[in-house]
Amino acid sequence: MTTSATLRIGTRGSDLARWQAMRVQALLAARGVSAEPVTIRTSGDEGSRVRPAPGTTGKGLFTKEIEDALLEGRVDLAVHSLKDLGAELPAGLTIAAYPEREDPRDALVSTKGGAVSDLPRGARVGTSSLRRRAALLAARSDLVVVALRGNVPTRVKQVGRGGLDAAVLALAGLKRLGLAERAVPLSLDWFPPAPGQGALALEARADDPAVLELLGPLDQPAVRCAVEAERTALAELEGGCQAAIGGFCEYGRDGLVLNVRVFSPDGTKHLSARGPVDPGDPAKSGRMVARDLLLQGARDLIRAADAFAAEHGMGREEA
Question: How far apart are CA 156 and CA 268, in angstroms?
Answer without folding.
Answer: 28
